[in-house]
Specification:
single chain; six-stranded antiparallel β-sheet; five-stranded mixed β-sheet; about 5% helix
C-alpha cells in the first residue's frame, strides 16, 4: 500500500474577502501547513497537504464495519496493511495500574484497500477474551517489519519488551473457521504458529523394534531423536531421544567394517497436531570417539488424506532412506526465547537490540530445587568432589554437586531438561 501526499502551492492567507469573491490562490484558513524553503534559500513558501480522514473498515464479506481498539502496531507489506490492536490499556507501570495478567481481546488484522478510504479486514488472529491472548498492551507499542519470501509466504516480525520476538505469515490464517463461519480459537496452535520456540504437549508414546532383517547398517549403536516443525516456519527442540540400540548379527557382535542386516520399526502414538510435520533423526555411532553419523530418516506429514489430524505413525528405517544431517546442529535445534525492544534486518539476517533471555526450563529447575522435599525428592544429586572444609556444625562441605536432570520436568509446559546444573555447595541458593 503506497503512502501518497498531495501538495498545493498558495500565495497567502486572506480572511477579509467574501467567500464568493475569494481568490483560489489564497487560503481562508490553513490546516496541515508546511513551510518550505524556496530555491535560493532566502525566502519561505507555504504549502499544505491533504490531512487525515476517517477510514471505513469492512469485515471480509462486507456486511458490517470493524471498529479498532487500541492500535499498538502496524506494518505495510506490499498491498497489505497489518494492524495489531488490543482492548487492554493499563499495565503495572501505567497510571491505570493492573498486573498485566488481566483478560483481553488481542487481534491481528490484515487490511486490503478497496479505495482511498475503505478497507476489507481479514482476521488473522483474535483471542476470545478469556485469557491474556498475545499479551499486547496499549502502553507497550510493537515494533515490526515485513519480509516478502513468496506470494504464499509473506511474514511480519514483531516485538515488544514484554514478549519474545514473534512472527506471522499474513497469507495463512492462524485461527480456523468452523462451518458456521465463526472463528475457532486454539491458544496452543496460535502460539506455536507465532513463537520461535513452540510449546510441546509431550503426550507421545514411542516404540522402537529392532529386526534382524531388511536393512543395511555398519556395526555399532544407534538411537533416534524427534522434533516437530511447521512448513515455512519454526522447528522445535529435540523433545525425545531413544536409548541406544545395538547393531549386530543375530547371534554375535560385528566389527565396524562389517554390515548387519538390521532394520528398525518406529511407532509413534498420540502425535501433537499443532504442527505440520514430525521429523525423525537417526544418530549412528560406529566408534567411541569419532563424531556420530546423523541422518534425517523421514518427515511425517501430520494430516491424513481428508486433512484430519494424524495421531499415529510408523516407519521402518533400513539404513538407506533419508538424507544426511550435520550432527553438530542437533543440540542447538529450537533455541531459546529472546525478548527484544528493537530489531532490524539486513540481507536476510535478523538483528535484535536490547535483548533479554528467559529460560523457562531453568526457572522451573530453580523452583524445584528450592522447594524439594527430602522425603519425596523430585530430583537426585551426586557428589562429584568432597572438600576438607567443615561448617559451624562440623558437617562436611561439598565443593560441587551435580543435579542429574533426567528426573526433572518443567511443570509449566512439560519441557524436559537437557543440561546439568552445578551448585558450589548444598546450602547455596540458585542465583544463575
Amino acid at each position: 500500500m503506497r503512502k501518497q501526499a498531495a501538495f498545493n502551492n498558495i500565495n497567502g492567507m486572506n480572511q477579509d474577502v467574501s467567500i464568493s469573491k475569494f481568490n483560489p490562490k489564497m487560503i481562508y484558513e490553513g490546516m496541515n501547513i508546511r513551510i518550505n524553503s524556496s530555491e535560493d534559500g532566502t525566502l519561505f513558501s507555504i504549502t499544505n497537504e491533504k490531512g487525515n480522514k476517517k477510514c471505513i473498515i469492512w469485515n471480509f464479506d462486507r456486511t458490517q464495519t470493524v471498529e479498532l481498539n487500541y492500535v499498538v502496531g502496524h506494518c505495510v507489506l506490499n498491498d497489505w496493511l497489518v494492524i495489531f490492536d488490543t482492548t487492554f490499556q493499563s499495565s503495572p507501570n501505567s497510571p491505570q495500574g493492573g498486573t498485566g495478567d488481566e483478560p483481553r481481546v488481542d487481534r491481528i488484522l490484515r487490511l486490503e484497500g478497496i479505495n482511498d478510504y475503505e478497507f476489507t479486514a481479514y482476521v488473522l488472529y483474535e483471542s476470545d477474551g478469556s485469557d491474556t491472548g498475545l499479551n499486547f498492551r496499549a502502553s507497550e507499542l510493537i515494533e515490526c517489519f515485513g519480509l516478502y519470501e513468496s506470494d504464499d509466504n509473506q511474514k511480519v516480525y514483531f516485538c515488544d519488551r514484554n514478549n519474545p520476538i514473534r512472527f506471522i505469515n499474513i497469507m495463512k490464517d492462524v485461527t480456523e473457521v468452523d462451518s458456521n463461519g465463526q472463528l475457532v480459537y486454539d491458544s496452543d496452535r496460535v502460539r506455536n504458529n507465532l513463537n520461535f520456540c513452540p510449546v510441546l504437549k509431550l503426550e507421545e508414546t514411542y516404540d522402537i523394534q529392532k529386526r534382524n532383517y531388511g536393512g543395511t547398517f555398519h556395526s555399532g549403536v544407534i538411537q533416534y531423536a524427534f522434533s516437530y516443525w511447521n512448513l515455512n516456519g519454526q522447528e522445535t527442540h529435540i523433545h525425545y531421544v531413544t536409548p541406544l540400540y545395538y547393531i549386530s548379527f543375530e547371534d554375535r557382535a560385528g566389527s565396524p567394517e562389517q554390515t548387519c542386516s538390521n532394520s528398525f520399526r518406529i511407532e509413534i502414538d498420540h502425535l501433537d497436531s499443532n504442527f505440520d510435520y514430525l521429523r525423525i533423526y537417526c544418530i549412528h555411532r560406529t566408534t567411541e570417539d569419532a563424531m556420530p553419523n546423523a541422518r534425517i530418516v523421514s518427515d511425517i506429514y501430520l494430516r491424513d488424506e481428508d486433512d484430519n489430524p494424524l495421531t499415529f505413525a510408523d516407519i521402518i528405517d533400513d539404513g538407506i532412506i533419508g538424507r544426511t544431517f550435520d550432527s553438530n546442529l542437533l543440540p542447538v535445534l529450537g533455541g531459546d526465547e529472546i525478548f527484544a525492544e528493537t530489531m532490524a534486518t539486513k540481507e536476510g539476517v535478523l538483528f535484535a537490540g536490547n535483548i533479554r533471555m528467559f529460560n523457562e526450563n531453568l526457572e522451573a529447575v530453580k523452583d524445584i530445587i528450592r522447594n524439594n522435599d527430602p522425603d519425596n525428592p523430585v530430583f537426585r544429586v551426586e557428589i562429584i568432589r568432597s572438600g576438607e572444609e567443615k561448617d559451624a556444625q562440623g558437617n562436611n562441605l561439598f565443593e560441587d554437586v551435580e543435579i542429574f536432570n533426567e528426573d526433572i520436568k518443567n511443570p509449566q509446559n512439560d519441557y524436559y531438561m537437557y543440561y546439568p546444573y552445578t551448585l558450589n555447595k548444598p546450602s547455596d541458593t540458585v542465583k544463575h
